[in-house]
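RECORD TYPE: inverse folding
INPUT: structure tokens
STRUCTURE:
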């Protein structure tokens, strides 16, 4: 079976990078695959969280999933902490993965910064929990943005090492050789790495102090329009060919955003706008962005008042996720030699 798993951290406002790098693909994949879309609250606590804010962010992300069009009845939307298998499998995989593998993770180095001795152990271990998220469901496909590529490679290495280390136990219990399928990252499209609107060399992120650097999914039409109008550009006209975007990070970013929002390639977009100036292009981009994102923001706002409904979606999703996870976790225990 083909099974999709992906997750987003409930650590603040969702932005256009999350939407184009991940959520837009979640929506597409649900047409053809069984999907689990997780609110990874256990990952969120790898850095300090205020409990009241965390609770609000979990609900906000759930509302965003629904507002963006994930079918919560057909697919599974849930929060990680309600399914104990994530933490349980992470422990087992901690004992499969090697310290040297984690030491190569660039995201830890970025997030821990200079004061690495003071980072939480959880932040260091983060990629192992992420591997557990995926492998707990034997997911085959994982849609993510480009920044998660290294973590996905690690998840594949862990799956492979588990399959090899325990090959004889896996066979003895009558499971397939590849007990854990090697999860395939889905990192495609014109916006795998959306950049800051203020600096085309920096990733658009929740943690950028400037709100003008990102478009939040909760922004209203006015805010979206203002941020795009203020977005940094260069003085040249738009090129007619994709090659002409090289060394023009801001132009490349805006063209990529337009392409991803409308579902075309950058080359298609340049066929329409190449040779023109930025102000014409930005006007079109504002219209497109408001058209696509406006209804999502409005629906998120409406769902904000529906706490009981949101919590019920998560409870239902967790029940269904648990039913998928439990036989896999039981099999892992048998393979490891645990008595149950
Ligand atoms: P997180 O919460 O940082 O980001 C969620 C998703 O958004 C993508 N993304 C971007 N894509 C393009 N341009 C950007 N500027 C941009 N910023 C963020 C991310 O690549 C991601 O797909 N570790 C994950 C969460 C996670 C997960 C998992 C993902 C936990 N377990 C299992 C997949 C499978 C993360 O921190 O995402």
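DESIGNED SEQUENCE:
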């Amino acid at each position: 079976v083909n099974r999709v798993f992906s997750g987003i951290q409930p650590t603040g406002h969702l932005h256009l990078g999350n939407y184009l790098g991940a959520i837009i693909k979640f929506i597409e994949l649900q047409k053809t695959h069984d999907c689990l879309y997780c609110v990874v609250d256990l990952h969120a606590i790898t850095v300090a969280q205020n409990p009241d804010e965390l609770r609000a962010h979990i609900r906000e992300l759930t509302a965003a999933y629904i507002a963006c069009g994930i079918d919560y009845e057909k697919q599974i939307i849930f929060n990680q902490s309600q399914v104990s298998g994530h933490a349980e499998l992470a422990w087992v995989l901690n004992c499969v993965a090697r310290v040297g593998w984690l030491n190569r993770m660039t995201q830890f180095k970025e997030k821990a910064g200079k004061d690495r001795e003071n980072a939480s152990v959880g932040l260091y271990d983060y990629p192992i929990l992420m591997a557990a998220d995926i492998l707990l469901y034997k997911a085959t496909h994982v849609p993510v943005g480009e920044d998660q590529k290294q973590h996905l490679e690690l998840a594949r290495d862990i799956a492979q090492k588990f399959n090899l280390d325990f090959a004889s136990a896996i066979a003895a219990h009558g499971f397939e050789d590849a007990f854990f399928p090697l999860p395939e990252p889905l990192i495609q499209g014109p916006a795998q790495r959306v950049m800051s609107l203020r600096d085309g060399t920096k990733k658009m992120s929740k943690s950028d102090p400037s709100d003008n650097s990102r478009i939040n999914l909760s922004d209203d039409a006015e805010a979206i329009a203002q941020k795009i109008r203020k977005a940094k550009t260069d003085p040249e006209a738009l090129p007619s060919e994709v090659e002409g975007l090289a060394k023009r990070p801001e132009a490349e970013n805006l063209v990529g955003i337009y392409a991803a929002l409308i579902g075309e390639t950058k080359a298609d977009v340049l066929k329409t706008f190449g040779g023109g100036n930025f102000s014409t292009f930005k006007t079109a981009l504002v219209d497109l962005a408001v058209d696509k994102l406006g209804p999502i923001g409005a629906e998120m706002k409406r769902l904000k008042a529906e706490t009981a409904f949101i919590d019920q979606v998560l409870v239902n999703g967790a029940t269904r996720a648990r039913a998928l996870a439990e036989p896999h976790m039981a099999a892992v225990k048998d393979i490891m030699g645990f008595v149950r």
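NOTES: The beta strands are 3-8, 34-39, 76-79, 141-143, 184-186.
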